[in-house]
Amino acid sequence: MKGREKLLKKFNEAFANCDTEFLANSVTDDIVWNIIGEKLISGRKDFEKSLDRMRHGGPTEIFVNEMIISDDRSVVEGIVEFYVEPGKKKKYAFCDVYVFSEIDDTKFKELRTYVALLNKKGL
Description:
Elements: H1 3-16, H2 20-25, E1 27-35, E2 39-42, H3 44-54, E3 59-69, E4 73-85, E5 88-100, E6 108-117
Parallel strand pairs: 1-6
Antiparallel strand pairs: 1-2, 3-4, 4-5, 5-6
């Protein structure tokens, strides 16, 4: 497994495990996270606030179906499960586009997230 593939795998595992410290350390200070159609998170401080909310009802499991890796960006597509209430999970399909920092290629400067709720027919 190559460096960027390992980083993306660890980043997604950190989301599943709510490892907010690893996630925060993996982005630049001027990170832009665009959750398409939902919200735009700008800057590391707002990114960290968003991660803190994740600890309450965050993802439980992430299944990565595919990774596409290029020089300055990568795409990860898969399924994520969230607890929406105690004992009740919902599944979402996601596609994340990661843009790497030009200064430090172990950090992301931009993240675009596309997400859709899966109904039972879409599983």
